[in-house]
Design a protein that fits this description.
This protein is an all-alpha fold. The protein has one domain. The chain has eleven helices and no strands. InterPro entries: ABC-2_transporter, ABC2_TM, ABC2_TM_bact-type, ABC_2_transport.
Length: 263
C-alpha cells in the first residue's frame, strides 16, 4: 500500500485548536480520496467478493448445515468485516508510519497542529469509509441476491461499532510499533490473512468444526463474525461474543496508546 504526502494545508491552519483540527481533517480527507488503493480495498474489494460468491448458483441454495440459510447470506457479514480489515490493517498504518518516517509528526510539534489531530483524523476517515463499505455490502446483498437486512438492528449496530473500533485499534497498534512504511506493510500483510480466516472468508465460522470454531470465536474477527450473523438472523448477539470484542477493543487501544511513538 502506498503512502501519501504530507498535508501542507494543515501547517497554515489557524491557531484555534478546533479550527486546526478541522483543517487537518479536511487535508487528510483530500489526500485519502486520492489513494485509489485504499478506496479499492475498503469499498470495492468486499463488494466484488460478494458479487462473485453470489453469482455461484450453489451459494444461492438453502444449506441445511447452515440452519436453512444460503451461503450468500452467511457471507454478507464476512464481506462487512473485510472492509474493516482492509481499512484498519492495510490502509491506515502505512499512512501514519510514513508521516513518522519522514519526520512530519516531529515537525508538527512546532506548529499549532497536534500529532494527535492527524491520528484522530485518520481513524475518523477510515471509520467512515468502513461504515460506507458496510452500507454498500448490505445494499448489494439485498438488491442483487435478496439477502435479508439485519433483523436485530440494535444488536447489529453494537457489534458493528465494536468491530470497527477493534479494527482501527489494531491498525493504530501496528502503526505504533512499525518504524518504517516497509515494516508496516509487512506486518499488515502477516496479520491480514489470519484476520480474513477468522472472519470466515475461506470457511464461515458457523460451518467450522466445533473445536476450531471455539478457538476462532476467541479472536476479534471471529467473535465479530458470529455476533453479526446472530444479529442479522434476528437474535441478540451472544454476550460472550460481545465481551470478546470489548476486551480486544480495550486491550488493543491501550497497547496502541502506550507504545505509540511520534518520532
Amino acid at each position: 500500500m502506498s503512502t501519501v504526502t504530507a498535508p501542507t494545508t494543515a501547517a497554515a491552519a489557524p491557531a484555534d485548536r478546533a479550527s486546526v483540527d478541522r483543517a487537518v481533517l479536511k487535508a487528510e480527507f483530500t489526500l485519502f480520496r486520492r489513494e485509489a488503493g485504499s478506496l479499492i480495498g475498503i469499498l470495492l474489494f468486499p463488494v466484488a467478493l460478494l458479487v462473485i460468491l453470489g453469482s455461484i448458483p450453489s451459494f444461492r441454495e438453502a444449506d441445511a448445515g447452515l440452519g436453512g440459510i444460503r451461503l450468500v447470506d452467511a457471507y454478507v457479514p464476512v464481506t462487512v468485516l473485510l472492509g474493516m480489515i482492509a481499512g484498519g490493517i492495510q490502509s491506515m498504518p502505512p499512512i501514519i508510519t510514513g508521516y513518522r518516517e519522514r519526520g512530519i509528526l516531529r515537525r508538527m510539534s512546532t506548529t499549532p497542529v497536534r500529532p494527535t489531530a492527524v491520528l484522530g483524523a485518520q481513524m475518523g476517515i477510515h471509520g467512515v469509509a468502513v461504515l460506507v463499505s458496510v452500507a454498500v455490502c448490505l445494499t448489494v446483498g439485498r438488491i442483487a441476491f435478496d439477502v435479508a437486512l439485519p433483523r436485530q438492528i440494535a444488536g447489529y449496530l453494537l457489534a458493528l461499532v465494536l468491530s470497527v473500533v477493534v479494527s482501527l485499534a489494531l491498525g493504530a497498534l501496528i502503526a505504533s510499533r512499525a518504524r518504517t512504511t516497509k515494516i508496516s506493510n509487512a506486518i499488515g500483510s502477516v496479520v491480514f490473512f489470519p484476520a480474513m480466516f477468522c472472519a470466515g472468508v475461506w470457511l464461515p465460522v458457523q460451518t467450522m468444526p466445533d473445536t476450531l470454531a471455539h478457538i476462532v470465536e476467541l479472536t476479534s474477527f471471529g467473535a465479530a463474525a458470529q455476533a453479526l450473523n446472530q444479529a442479522a438472523a434476528g437474535d441478540w448477539p451472544a454476550w460472550s461474543h460481545l465481551l470478546v470484542l470489548a476486551v480486544w477493543a480495550v486491550g488493543l487501544t491501550g497497547m496502541a496508546a502506550r507504545w505509540f511513538r511520534w518520532e
